[in-house]
Amino acid sequence: MCKIVSLVLYFSALHSIPEMMTKTILKTAYQILEKSILYHKGEPIGTVAALSSPDLAAANYEECFIRDFVPSALVFLSDGRTDIVRNFLKTVLTLRTRERTVAGHEIQPGVMPASFRVTETDEGEILQADFGEKAIGRVAPVDSMMWWVILLYIYTESTGDKELAKSEEFQSTLRQILHLCLKDSFEVSPALLVPDACTMIDRRMGIYGHPLEIQSLFYAVLRVTHHLLDKQPTRRQGETDILDTAISRQSALQNYVRIFYWLDMERLNEIHRYTTEQFGTDSVNVLNIYPESIPNWVTDWLPDQCGYLVGNIGPSRMDFRLFTLGNLIAVMFGLATDVQSEKIIRLYESRWDDLIGSMPVKIIYPAMEGLEWQVRTGSDPKNVPWSYQNGGNWPALLWPFVAAALKTGRGDLAERAFQVAISRLSFDNWPEYYDSKTGRLIGRRANMQQVWSATSVILSHKLLEDPELLKLLPK
Ligand code: GLC
After folding, report:
1. CA 63 to CA 157: how far, in whole Å?
2. Considering 46, 73, 89, 267, which has the largest number of Cβ atoms within 10 A of its Cβ?
3. Ligand 1 atom closest to Cα of 432?
4. Residue 1 lies in a domain
5. In terms of pTM, does the model score above 0.90?
6. What's the pLDDT score for residue 473?
């Protein structure tokens, strides 16, 4: 093993691992994927989050998480194992009606679970879903139903099986999801208002409001529903179908994000010189952002010719932190303009050590420290600065980086990040995340044999070998 490790270190210093060694690493990743398959009544229906080991960080890692299954699904689809993806889509659909309710406080129908498990009972195997009631933050995930819709679209495109989405149950579920996301609330902006901890970041991290990750996923959902959902004949004059509402919301959301979330040097200068407290419809500083709220780090850190979508916006609030997943999804699914997409990827190139470092990719930059960490995370010891969700490096984010880089014509960066990832992951036993500013340490409380760390590598390799696979993503 030591000999292999030193060989890998030697080759990674040369920036390229030989194909033979890559094949061995991919083989190990596939072994993890295979062992992770969850069966129900003899049928494969998903993959668990991490392989059982005596030191699993949390009991629910034995469950199938909706978001974690996405890279597994894409690997299965590209390998022609479509049955498992179909079973997964059907299973999650049935689980959405099984949420436990608290009197007077029912979870809205259409919300899908964060995860589910198969449990043995006297009556046989049963499926048990978790809508956040057993998770750390006790928050229902908002991203699950969005990933489900996106995956349904990819499944349909890749298999040509249009029947599944057109079935009555799927049509009514799609409508339920749209109603839930589009219904009138107290909101005045086209962005979706959600609680903290309802995304991949499922602990308190100060992302309540309008986090970018949700807006990017929401945009993708709006974009694909007209491929999946049939228009219903309107019953009354003047009545609009939910599908029409979805289409107009899609363009409103797109404009809003492209304008208000965008940050580059030109925009930073604008904000720096903003006039505040403006009234009326013609005000420039619509959200009343105070220039004093620009954090010191951003001015020196943001290079010329680069940019990114900020983490969150709201009244007098701009969360300047860079959230990787929201940005990469915005590039992959066309929420960001072509120029913005190029600038985002260039930012990763220019700030390589900060955002890729020793393990792609940094989940959030920068980490919150001191008082800010205390107040925003509730002094969460797992989310200490530069660890886990507060600035850790996550291999699961490799595939969105590779996809986004390929989409913007930066295959060179995609390949470079892939080489960094495979130089360590297999030898570190596929950790869930890495710690420290540049991701040099294995996460203090990271699981080993984390399934989406492995599938992310397999999928990235597939995308690099055949960028045509990108065509399956919502465009
Ligand atoms: C952690 C992550 C979440 C992931 C889960 C299972 O809770 O924050 O994004 O889905 O682990 O891997």
Report:
1. 27
2. 46
3. 12
4. yes
5. yes
6. 86
